[in-house]
Design goal:
Blueprint: H1 2-23, H2 26-48, H3 55-78, E1 111-114, E2 117-119, E3 126-128, E4 132-134, E5 139-141, E6 146-148, E7 154-156, H4 161-181, H5 183-190, H6 203-233, H7 237-253, H8 276-284, E8 310-313
Antiparallel strand pairs: 1-8, 2-3, 4-5, 6-7
Helix pairs in contact: 2-4, 2-6, 3-4, 4-6, 5-6, 6-8
Bound molecules: zinc ion (ZN) (2 copies).
Length: 342
């Protein structure tokens, strides 16, 4: 556990360093990501797809997956994450917007309660719970998850987090399909099968796309599982870091609280940790007052279940159990290397 924490801190230091280096280069990284995704897509549709059986059956799902990947990437890069102080956007009515409709998915009844407010000491804005200050954007973001300079060149927050997760899911699916169905073409490109390379794209270009898609598939799959696990637990990436510190403080004080909810949670009861299913339904907003389930399959825009000023929370809890008043982390600690609160 200690080792994992050290590794985690090491990654955080590296991440801060990368923030500085990559901040200015963000748009170039987005351009590069687009070029690489387009190369992979082109490789698949010009070299792999024509060799698949029953093209009338296999082509539509492949186009659908690629479309989802590009559209969610477009959304996650272009939709503002939800800066505190900006007017909260209203749902649109254009073609790209889904219509809210009662879903068949019911979740356990949840209490949506007005969030406590605090003032950010860095930008001076009053912000609700779950908002955090982004040191790259120098603004507070509603339900801040992280700032992603390399892939999307902006923050992941309340408005684009759903697209971020769906983008990762469709990217994993796309690269997996290229890896599995392109295996024999990769052997052709390597010259193992002695089949002459007759495609317009050079064999080297295809091999590069193929190798990159293997790496991406594995790396993004791990990130996707990490994010979905966090969503199910009701915590963002930054909250997961905070909770680690809260647990440590609770443990040092010997304030292990008994489990009173769905699972054993001896040191910290996260205020936003509902049933896993409920947390997932709220995140994707496909519950009773949200959008239909098909919005996970069609790249449409949807609104979050809340405007960020109130949150679904566990009955009877005002703050995380195990955390005393005044102990909540405020982003200030990051400047002090995120070490301890005592
Ligand atoms: Zn701020
Ligand atoms: Zn940011």
């Amino acid at each position: 556990m200690i080792c994992a924490r050290r590794v985690f801190r090491c990654f955080r230091s590296l991440e801060r360093f990368a923030d500085r280096i990559t901040g200015a280069a963000g748009p170039w990284f987005v351009g590069l990501a687009l070029i690489l995704m387009s190369m992979g897509t082109l490789s698949f549709f010009t070299i792999v797809q024509p060799t698949l059986p029953c093209p009338w059956l296999t082509t539509p799902p492949c186009i659908w997956i690629a479309l989802n990947m590009f559209m969610h990437y477009y959304y996650v890069c272009t939709i503002p994450p939800g800066f505190v102080g900006d007017p909260f956007p209203l749902p649109g009515s254009g073609l790209l917007w889904a219509s809210p409709s009662p879903s068949q998915l019911s979740s356990s009844s949840v209490e949506i309660i007005k969030a406590r407010m605090s003032r950010c000491k860095k930008c001076g804005e009053m912000r609700p719970e779950r908002a955090h200050h982004c040191r790259v954007c120098n603004k507070c973001v509603l339900k801040f998850d992280h700032h992603c300079p390399v892939r999307i060149n902006q923050c992941v927050g309340i408005h684009n987090e759903r697209h971020f997760v769906l983008f990762m899911a469709y990217l994993v699916l796309s690269t997996l399909i290229l890896n599995v169905f392109g295996f024999h073409r990769a052997l052709d490109a390597l010259g193992v099968t002695l089949v002459p390379w007759m495609h317009a794209m050079p064999a080297f270009g295809f091999l590069m796309s193929y190798m990159l898609s293997i790496v991406l598939c594995l790396a993004v799959f791990i990130m996707l599982v990490w994010h979905i696990w966090g969503i199910a637990k009701g915590e963002t990436s930054v909250e997961a870091q905070d909770h680690e510190i809260y647990r440590k403080v609770a443990k040092e004080r010997g304030e292990a609280s008994p489990s009173t909810f769905q699972c054993q949670e001896p040191l910290l009861s996260n205020l936003f940790r509902l049933f896993k299913r409920t947390n997932l339904i709220l995140f994707f907003n496909i519950g009773l007052n949200g959008y239909p389930l098909y919005t996970l399959l069609i790249p449409l825009r949807v609104m979050p279940y809340t405007d960020g000023s109130s949150w679904a929370r566990r009955d009877g809890l005002q703050r995380h159990r195990g955390v005393r008043e005044g102990e909540e982390l405020t982003d200030e600690e990051e400047d002090e290397d995120g070490e301890e609160i005592q």
